[in-house]
Amino acid sequence: MFCCRELILYLWISLHQVWPKTVEDGVLSSFRSICGEDGVSLGQAVREQHGKDESVHRCCPPDVVVFPRCVEEVSALARVCHSHRLPIIPFGTGTGLEGGVGAVKGGVCFSLRKMDAVLDLHPEDFDVTVEPGVTRKALNAYLRDTGLWFPVDPGADASLCGMAATSASGTNAVRYGTMRENVLNLEVVLADGSVLHTAGKGRRPRKTAAGYNLTNLLVGSEGTLGIITKTTLRLYGVPEATASAVCSFPSVQAAVDSTVQVLQAGVPIARIEFLDDVMIDACNRFSSLNYPVTPTLFLEFHGSERSLEEQVSTTEEITQSNGGADFQWARDAETRSRLWKARHDAWYASLALRPGCKAYATDVCVPLSRLPQIIVETKEDLIENRLTGPIAGHVGDGNFHCVMVVNPDDPDELHRVHLFTQRLARRALAMDGTCTGEHGVGLGKRSLLCEEMGDPAMRAMQSVKEALDPLNLMNPGKVLQPGGPGDAQQLFLHLD
Ligand SMILES: *[C@@H]1O[C@H](CO)[C@@H](O)[C@H](O)[C@H]1NC(C)=O
């Protein structure tokens, strides 16, 4: 009898170890009563789809996915999670690159795609408020006839609230700024279900000197402080005209010197993208182009017809004085879109260098003047360690990506990639830069964040976290808490 009880206990424990911790039935029925029968999913496929972003981090499915339809439902769901101490993981489009959505501690994924309304467009004030299901392409489609657009473009068609949560940017940031410069207000649901407006409810002044900047605190918080349920964004007038150019350089230094001088000359350049010789070679092959295989700049100019001419001729002069050759520029939409398509396809072009391999993009950012040195050293490091890593950079911001193309079945190569990316981040830190310019900290860069910030700043971040989320329910295990299970090592072991 006693023996039998022990056996049952043993079975009970082992079942619970094998199966994910399930959410109690009572909790599930509360969820269903809040967001409807079809607003709660326990299906394995749905959970797996919500346990992973576009990075190489292992899939960590949540125990359950909920699909709220409005802020009241988000708040009610959060209150249930709070009283049952269940982790909450906000989910937009899953296009992140640092493992930010994995449910490393289990819990409830809040998929926000049903909240997809564009609210409160104020064309005369150049602002708009959107719900978390609205992606940047959807917003720009909505704005099509207004003469306005939202420029921040991280490549993927990410949700705007997710972009705020990760402080996203992209090719346009040199002219229009990142999400940090373009968010005016956020509606945020905290872990206990309370609803907060970071700049005061409904407010959207262009500037303010009122109190601490909570908006900036939430931008880049990666779901660890609250769930963003609305964001108010700055908009811009669609430029009257656009031109693009390509130019080849004898060295990385010459390309970066040209960039610095273009910015110093006050050219309001909209995009200035650097591709190293390996990347331009990959793009040539992939997109059937034939640019010289040397460091290259892709440029884009926005403005009136008159100002474009001036911008282009100033830039051409500068590039020539730095040994730039083959300056080709284009006004027609077709040539321009072919050029930028090649840039946007750089990821696939990199992958095509080694068929059957996987790609992993890492990102650092340094003061502009350090860019030539870090790129040159990084290229030497790649060669020494027999790694394929074409480089593309938002050079006007000192930000670049190394697209690591790696054979997932080669543990030795995976290890070399891991060590390489750590060295790259530390090289950026040693040059007064940051371990991530736009991808975020997520899971993989937590210990680098500590090195970057130092103890007092990390303690301040920890105190902020404890003040807003004392039970550590909001996306636990991300950004803070280095060295725990899942840090660094977990990366690269599961390239699937
Ligand atoms: C506060 O932060 C937001 C988001 O980063 C930014 O857009 C805004 O300009 C900041 N406000 C002030 C007054 O600095």
TrEMBL record:
PROSITE patterns attached to this UniProt entry: FAD_PCMH
The entry's keywords: Acetylation, FAD, Flavoprotein, Mitochondrion, Oxidoreductase, Signal, Transit peptide
UniProt key word Signal: yes
Family per similarity comment: Belongs to the FAD-binding oxidoreductase/transferase type 4 family.
Residue ranges constituting the FAD-binding PCMH-type domain according to the UniProt record: 58-238
Enzymatic class: oxidoreductase
Protein name: Probable D-lactate dehydrogenase, mitochondrial
Species lineage: Eukaryota, Metazoa, Chordata, Craniata, Vertebrata
Alphabetical list of InterPro entries matching this protein: FAD-bd_oxidored_4_C, FAD-bd_PCMH, FAD-bd_PCMH-like_sf, FAD-bd_PCMH_sub2, FAD-linked_Oxase-like_C, Oxid_FAD_bind_N, Vanillyl_alc_oxidase_C-sub2
One GO BP: lactate catabolic process
Pfam family, one: FAD-oxidase_C
Gene Ontology CC terms, in alphabetical order: mitochondrion
Any one Gene Ontology molecular-function term assigned to this protein's record: D-lactate dehydrogenase (NAD+) activity
Catalytic activity annotation: (R)-lactate + 2 Fe(III)-[cytochrome c] = 2 Fe(II)-[cytochrome c] + pyruvate + 2 H(+)
Cofactor(s) the protein needs: FAD
Purpose: Involved in D-lactate, but not L-lactate catabolic process.
Organism encoding this protein: Salarias fasciatus
E.C. code: 1.1.2.4
